[in-house]
Amino acid sequence: MTRVTFGTLLAGVFAAVVASSSGSLAEPPNFDPKATAPMTGDIDTLERMATIRELIHLGLQDNDPVLLATAAQLMRRLPTTSITRAKKLGSTDPGDKLDTAQVIEFSVGGILKRAERFAAHKPIAMALISEVRRMPKARPGGGTMYLYKVAANSADEFEIVFEPDHRAAVFAESQDEKGSLGITVLDEGDNVVCQRNRQRPHVNCTWIPIRKGTFKFKIENPLDHPQDYVLVTN
Predict the structure, then answer these.
(1) What is the mean pLDDT of each run of 10 residues along the chain (234 residues)?
(2) Regarding beta strands 213-221 and 181-186, do their DSSP bridges make them parallel or antiparallel, or are they unpaired?
(3) What is the pLDDT of residues 173-222, one digit of tens each?
(4) DSSP 3-state assignment of 3?
(5) CA dist., res. 220 & res. 197, Å (int)
(6) CA 3 to chain centre
(7) According to CATH, what is the number of the domain 41-233?
(8) How many Å apart are CA 79 and CA 45, to the nearest integer?
(9) Which residues face 169 on adjacent strands?
């Protein structure tokens, strides 16, 4: 016959209470991978930025002037509205404030120069490049974005509040053509919402929060030298 002492009973009850208590206090992850939400203008802009950067990557990889010219065309059509600013943690670095229109025009000019290098004896590509050059330029003063520098083999940490049932998005682009960035997004319970490490100069995450919450995210630099990057959030 097993003898049960009073102390053993207390220990068992205490353990049960702690388990129950911790379970009730733990919040479920603040995102729903199956949820849907309308594609608003700011999200559409961030999604297009990610698409543009992918076209640039493929165009440079394949020496394809049509892909590069298409990327420039899409970039020139981007709206120049202001970007929601995330709070950088553990640093007094405010980031450099950039005029969105100037960033767009500088980028378009650089992309088209690359496209022209690959477009010799390719009349369709040259025609597309000429068409993009004739498109109306973005007007200065229409919006802002921010430029940061992440140290070698390090990460910058930010936080931002997102509302429920609306798409949340974070996009970061290295200004180093051969750069590489990673991103990790955590909710208020430190649940991993999104993680990307694509060995590419740009990374982006989108998700739909199920309640209002403060999310933290890290922009990670796996390289042995610092990287300047543009950060965009909605």
Answers:
(1) 45 42 65 70 74 90 95 86 80 79 86 94 94 84 79 95 90 90 95 88 92 96 94 86
(2) antiparallel
(3) 999 888 999 999 999 999 999 999 877 899 999 999 999 999 999 999 99
(4) coil
(5) 9
(6) 61
(7) 2.60.120.380
(8) 7
(9) 206
What is the Cα–Cα distance from 106 to 128, expressed in whole angstroms? 18
Nearest to 193 by CA among 149, 150, 151, 160: 160
- Whose CA is closest to 109, among 84, 75, 86? 75
Report phi then psi at 93, rounded to 5.
Answer: -70, 115
d(CA 189, CA 28): 8
HSE, CB side, 13 Å, CA atoms: give it for residue 105: 15
pTM of the model: 0.77
Helices (H), the chain: 6-25, 41-62, 65-76, 100-118, 123-134
Name 172's bridge partners. 203, 231
- Give backbone dihedrals phi and psi of 150, rounded to 5 degrees, phi first: -105, 135
Q: 100 φ, ψ to 5°?
A: -55, -40
